[in-house]
Design a protein that fits this description.
It is built from five helices and seven strands. It is of the alpha+beta class. The two termini are 30 Å apart. Helix content is 35%, strand content 32%. It has one domain: Aminopeptidase.
């Protein structure tokens, strides 16, 4: 099994797995899904802007992982996982649009790095690997959305070439709080 490392990583212990390598770990004993669940549950419980108000269940995350792997095997997505010192540290994925008229485009759906592993270049390494995967898959435009208060993520995406193309003010409701929903894109035809 080839382990993919990336120059953006700041730790010699960092390993970035591609979709096939993640599938091996996911299929063997559910190890990847369990790690992804731990990361998401921890981040969402702390208020991270990942699309859940309450931490997702282990079954929900296992179903999500299986869907992403299935679509990736069909050429309609890519999943990357980061391991730091042999432990799950983060993951991210993109999925191609399903509508025939939008097939050359994909959404960077999720990027999550455990709080203990943040600040080590893992989010950058994962995103760069996913961008490379999108290029190989012939994706023309990679889009994403983020909650407006997620300044670190928005800075990361901008540093990798994403540009904001829209914003819905006060669109995301978390209890009484409201946040903008920010849309960004990376045009891979131009880079």
């Amino acid at each position: 099994m080839t382990r993919n490392t990336t120059p953006a990583a700041t730790s010699a212990d960092l390993v970035i797995l591609d979709t096939a390598e993640v599938a091996e770990r996911a299929g063997a004993d559910g190890e990847f899904a369990a790690g992804a669940h731990r990361i998401l549950a921890e981040l969402v419980a702390a208020g991270a802007a990942l699309g859940w108000l309450e931490p997702p269940s282990a079954a929900e995350v296992a179903d999500l992982v299986e869907e992403v792997l299935t679509r990736s095997r069909a050429g309609d997505g890519a999943l990357r996982a980061a391991y730091l010192g042999g432990r799950p540290a983060g993951f991210g994925y993109w999925l191609r649009h399903r509508r025939p008229t939008h097939r050359p485009h994909a959404d960077l759906e999720k990027l999550a790095v455990s709080s203990a592993a943040q600040g080590r270049g893992i989010g950058r390494a994962l995103t760069a690997a996913l961008i490379a995967d999108a290029r190989v898959a012939g994706i023309e435009v990679l889009t994403l959305d983020a909650r407006g208060d997620n300044a670190d993520a928005l800075r990361l995406y901008a540093s990798l070439g994403f540009t904001e193309y829209g914003r819905l003010p006060d669109y995301v409701a978390v209890g009484e709080r409201r946040y903008d929903k920010v849309f960004a894109m990376l045009d891979l035809r131009r880079s």
